Amino acid sequence: MPKAKKAAELIISKARTKNASKKCNVSSEFYGALDKKVREMIKGAETRAIGNKRKTLKAVDL
Questions:
Q1: Structure confidence by residue, pLDDT tens digits, 27-39
Q2: Could you say which of 1, 26, 50, 60 has the lowest number of CB atoms within 10 Å?
């Protein structure tokens, strides 16, 4: 019997995301969308850092 594929792990914390939202509830679909945006931001920051001949991500890369 083949092993079921494991869903992609989130790089964001569901608990911390929920705690950060003070006035609204957080839907289950929000976590995946937030995770996708964060991954896109990291990829863009990596591109910028490499373009500037660095191997370290800095706040300015965002």
A1: 999 999 999 999 9
A2: 1
